[in-house]
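Lecture notes, part 5. Sequence design as translation. It can be helpful to think of inverse folding as translation between two languages: the language of shapes and the language of residues. The source text, in structure tokens, appears below.
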């Protein structure tokens, strides 16, 4: 995943970079009815290219890491919700218990995601590859 941004500040080997946030509708927010595009966010990146304040830079994170993190946050909890729902429904034959079991299984996954995220804090770092 590559994105272009402007360096806001430099602090040793880290920099703050202002990037335009991408939208799911391709920045044509009127087409989907949401006002989501056009926002900017400031992210911290490792300064491997020696960028200075005001430079336009290209920041990058490996696509496999982005997709893996997205799977753990979006797909795996849904799978565990369905599994918990099926197991609790087969045990209790009650829709309310099944829903509670699914939500409980999903909560366990999110707790695991939080613990793993804290453990691997430096693994998901943005890196400045070059000054544009």
């Amino acid at each position: 995943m590559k994105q272009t941004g402007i360096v806001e500040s430099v602090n040793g080997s880290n920099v703050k970079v202002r990037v335009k946030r991408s939208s799911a509708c391709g920045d044509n927010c009127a087409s989907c009815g949401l006002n989501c595009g056009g926002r900017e966010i400031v992210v911290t990146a490792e300064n491997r290219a020696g960028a200075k304040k005001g430079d336009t830079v290209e920041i990058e994170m490996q696509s496999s890491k982005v997709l893996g993190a997205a799977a753990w946050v979006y797909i795996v909890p849904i799978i565990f919700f369905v599994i918990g729902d099926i197991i609790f429904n087969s045990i209790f034959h009650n829709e309310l218990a099944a829903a509670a079991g699914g939500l409980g299984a999903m909560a366990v996954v999110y707790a695991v995601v939080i613990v793993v995220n804290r453990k691997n804090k430096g693994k998901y770092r943005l890196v400045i590859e070059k000054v544009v």
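The translated text above is only one of many valid answers, since several sequences can fold into similar shapes. DSSP finds three helices and five strands in the chain.
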